[in-house]
Amino acid sequence: MPFELEKVVPWGRSFEEYASIFSLTINDLNKEILGCSDGPASFNIEMKRNGRVCTSVDPIYQFTDVEIKKRITESFDEVLSQTRKNKNEFIWKNIKSVEELGKTRKNAMEQFLADFELGKKENRYIAGALPRLNLKNQQFDLALCSHFLLFSVCPELFHKTLKNYQPEYLQIRQAYLAGRYRFYDARVNQDGR
Q: How far apart, in whole angstroms, are the C-alpha atoms of residue 58 and residue 3?
């Protein structure tokens, strides 16, 4: 899979951010979850610590923890600098400041890095990208994708991995981030909520 780490800006979310973004319930968290484009988020390791199942797929997982950490270090200050310049474009509700955002994301990425090599051995972190995911059809109950573009490129491949997928249960959640960009969070939900 041709993928250059130098062009990636790793920015990992925390478990709390995932729970909020996707309005995850206890019932949701007890399902087999597929996280698409999770990057260096701590959601996977925090799910494992709580005895729950999550598999994360991202092309960045083809690299080592050392390589990913190096790229995080190279890009972290620039991301915060750009965030400060565009702080009026944020909705500062759950995270109150640029400084808190930096601490939250750094903590999430540190947890990810500490778990990454073991998680790869346990097949919790899988290197992959659309349009081909090396996963079984109907393997997961719930798929979370924090980047709507990824989901919209190839939805039929995305939802083939879900058990009992029904397209009318697709919900789109918006999250506004720094700058003029909007990223859409997609949640495929078989419960009809």
A: 11
- DSSP secondary structure letter of residue 166: -
The answer as to whether 39 is a domain residue is: yes
Predicted structure pTM score: 0.76
Nearest C-alpha neighbor of 112 from the set 71, 159, 158, 173: 71
For 131-144, write each residue's pLDDT tens digit. 667 777 777 788 78
Q: Facing residues of 142 across strands?
A: 33
Query: What is the pLDDT at residue 26?
Result: 94
Residue 193: inside a domain, yes or no?
A: no
Question: pLDDT at position 172, please?
Answer: 31
pLDDT, residue 130, reads: 64
Q: What is the residue whose two structure tokens read 């062009």?
A: 7
CA quadruple 137, 143, 147, 151: dihedral, nearest 10:
40
Number of structural domains found in the chain: 1
Q: Domain range for residue 149?
A: 5-188
The total of other beta-carbon atoms located within 10 Å of residue 65's CB is 17
Query: Across-strand partners of 54?
Result: 33
